[in-house]
């Protein structure tokens, strides 16, 4: 695919062959898809890979089709390793990022009084998992403070907590689902390595949008989905397990015949690779679709694709910021392509339904999704818009115009009530 040089990160200049990219994306013909942080539109090569394997299964059988596609399945690990800078043996397929995260947590032998050190901008399911560990095992949850300017976690304060509390686990989310904030995960990783602490990163919103290098981040464990900015199928994700963690013997609490060998009547041995975190039953069509999605992202280039997505998001923020009754909520110096805003005069579901009716895909976030962040911002809900590289400037402007019209209608309704 043709890639041109980018002169600016602040304007959505054409970086890629958009005509070819959009022709590869059937959904572009029917919707303005600004919900890539929920689920990206699937590209034709991904569809072909999945449908082709399902056809093969139907004709020759599931086990037999898996044997035929063995090399292509291995390609998932090879391509993903190239994407995140790791060995294929350090990657495990998972049914979702949350599934991968739960597998990772289950590998840690928590004891009463152990500390989990995390941030105030984390994914809801991760925080619920920590609370469940506290309830079941007596684990203590410590949240590092944010910087006063709202630009993310205070890394110096977090490092001080690492030294004073010696946490059993350090956990951070690269880009939280409820805003465009980009957390300094590599800085956190540097301090974790210096203190030899186990470090888990949720990269669910960053893989496929931002360059992610596990060596640069310095994490022991990293989880992500394939359905968002990677544009893979739903029901897919992965877990990265560092060679250090594999050598240390980390394995999931419940391990099956894919991840271990039954070496005697009363003993087993985990396999040497991250496959110990997988299960025997395996969605081969989905894995092949993910492999093609990763290869597609590599062909496009994550860096130029991400620059374009972030530039489109910047254009979107600039447009929304000038509308009466709207309040932008994203923090950080260089926010990612997740644009969140509150709007006056509307309830959550009616506002989203009004955008849906205009052919604009979006997502809602509620207070329960981000108790700390939305508590600080004093909002009960917000709308999230997340463009990707295949979206256009015209689509951004159309969305801004639609939000502006709805905002005016909401203000008029509120005025009438008063």
What attributes characterize this protein structure?
Aspartate Aminotransferase, domain 1, Aspartate Aminotransferase, domain 2, globular, 15 helices, 418 residues, alpha/beta
Structure description:
The termini are far apart. Mean pLDDT is 93; it is low at 1-14 and 414-418. This protein has a 7-stranded mixed sheet, sandwiched between helices. The chain has a 4-stranded antiparallel sheet with strand order 11-12-15-14. The protein is built from 15 helices and 15 strands. The longest helix has 25 residues, at 393-417. Helix 2 crosses helix 3 (62-68). It is α/β, with parallel strands linked by helices and 418 residues long. Strand 5 (169-173), helix 8 and strand 6 (199-202) form a beta-alpha-beta unit.
Compact summary:
This protein has 15 helices and 15 strands. It has helices at 18-23, 44-60, 62-68, 70-84, 97-106, 124-137, 155-165, 185-194, 214-217, 243-247, 284-300, 302-321, 348-357, 371-377, 393-417, and strands at residues 32-33, 91-94, 115-118, 140-143, 169-173, 199-202, 221-225, 237-241, 260-264, 267-270, 326-328, 339-343, 360-361, 363-366, 381-385. Strands 2-8-7-6-5-3-4 form a seven-stranded mixed β-sheet, sandwiched between helices. A four-stranded antiparallel β-sheet has the order 11-12-15-14. Strands 1-13 form a two-stranded parallel ribbon.
């Amino acid at each position: 695919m043709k890639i041109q040089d980018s002169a600016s990160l602040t304007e959505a200049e054409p970086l890629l062959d958009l005509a070819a990219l959009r022709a590869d994306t059937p959904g572009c013909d029917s919707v303005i898809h600004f919900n890539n942080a929920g689920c990206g539109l699937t590209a034709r090569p991904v569809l072909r890979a999945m449908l082709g394997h399902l056809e093969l299964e139907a004709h020759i059988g599931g086990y037999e089709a898996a044997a035929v596609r063995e090399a292509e399945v291995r390609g998932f690990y090879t391509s993903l390793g190239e994407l995140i800078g790791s060995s294929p043996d350090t990657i495990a397929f998972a049914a979702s990022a949350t599934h991968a995260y739960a597998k990772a947590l289950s590998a840690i032998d928590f004891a009463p009084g152990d500390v989990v050190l995390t941030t105030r901008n984390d994914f809801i399911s991760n925080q619920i998992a920590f609370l469940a560990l506290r309830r079941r095992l007596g684990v203590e949850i410590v949240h590092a403070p944010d910087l006063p300017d709202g630009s993310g976690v205070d890394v110096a304060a977090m490092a001080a907590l690492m030294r004073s509390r010696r946490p059993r686990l350090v956990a951070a989310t690269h880009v939280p689902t409820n805003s465009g904030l980009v957390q300094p995960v590599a800085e956190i990783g540097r301090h974790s390595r210096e203190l030899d602490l186990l470090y888990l990163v949720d990269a669910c919103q960053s893989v496929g949008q931002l360059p992610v290098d596990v060596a640069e981040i310095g994490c022991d464990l990293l989880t992500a989905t394939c359905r968002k900015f990677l544009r893979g199928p739903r029901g897919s994700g992965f877990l990265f397990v560092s060679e250090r963690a594999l050598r240390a013997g980390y394995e999931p609490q419940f391990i099956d015949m894919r991840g271990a060998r039954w070496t005697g009547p009363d003993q087993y041995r985990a396999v040497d690779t991250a496959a110990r975190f997988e299960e025997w039953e395996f969605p081969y069509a989905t894995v092949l679709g993910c492999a093609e999605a990763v290869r597609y992202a590599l062909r496009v280039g994550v860096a130029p694709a991400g620059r374009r997505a972030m530039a489109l998001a910047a254009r979107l923020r600039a447009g929304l910021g000038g509308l009466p009754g709207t309040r932008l909520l994203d923090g950080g110096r260089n926010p990612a392509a997740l644009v969140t805003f509150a709007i006056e005069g509307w309830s959550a579901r009616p506002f989203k339904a009004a955008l849906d009716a205009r052919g604009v895909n979006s997502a809602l976030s509620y207070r329960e999704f981000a108790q700390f962040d939305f508590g600080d911002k004093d909002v009960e809900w917000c709308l999230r818009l997340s463009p990707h590289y295949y979206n256009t400037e015209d689509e951004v402007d159309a969305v801004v115009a639609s939000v502006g019209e709805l905002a005016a209608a909401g203000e008029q309704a509120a005025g009438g009530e008063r």
